[in-house]
Write a structure and sequence with these properties.
75% helix; mainly alpha
């Protein structure tokens, strides 16, 4: 029970940390979207490819780097099989190769056994999957961030005026 409480507290802390960044709402929302895009790419065990791509895109588009790193957390070991399955299906539509990938039991040996064609299928599928998810992240997060900041500013203003 204590573990769940601590996890919930950690998630809330990072959520508030991102919302309180000293940058524009657009920069935060764009950083989250770019991080989500990077998070949709396949995670190669031992390589922080998703985080590197999210950060690189945040530098290129001048978005929040911290928000981009947080956005990459969309893919985590609890949902990799969903992402790999979708990446595989989408990638096979573009590159019809005859390989079999079992997203429920992927490990480093599976990446080696499918070869470059298999990794390319996953990369292309992830890049295509990341576009609508990144766009959706931006569209949803921008008004939420603006609303949070507006409410917080009003709350701080009320607090200051009541003390005076």
């Amino acid at each position: 029970m204590n573990v769940i409480f601590n996890l919930k507290r950690l998630v809330r802390y990072n959520y508030l940390k991102v919302l309180r960044l000293k940058t524009s709402s657009h920069s935060i929302a764009l950083g989250l979207a770019l991080g989500v895009y990077g998070g949709c790419l396949p995670a190669l065990p031992g390589l922080p490819l998703q985080s590197i791509i999210g950060l690189l895109l945040a530098f290129i588009f001048r978005a929040s780097k911290i928000a981009a790193l947080v956005g990459t957390w969309i893919s985590n070991p609890l949902n990799w099989f969903v992402f790999y399955w979708a990446e595989y299906k989408i990638g096979r539509l573009i590159i019809p190769v005859n390989i079999r990938i079992d997203p429920l039991s992927m490990n480093i040996q599976d990446f080696v056994s499918v070869g470059m064609k298999g990794v390319l299928v996953l990369l292309i599928g992830g890049a295509i999957l990341g576009l609508p998810l990144g766009l959706l992240t931006y569209i949803v997060s921008l008004p939420l961030i603006r609303n949070y900041r507006r409410r917080r500013a009003l709350r701080l203003l009320r607090k200051r005026t009541s003390l005076s």
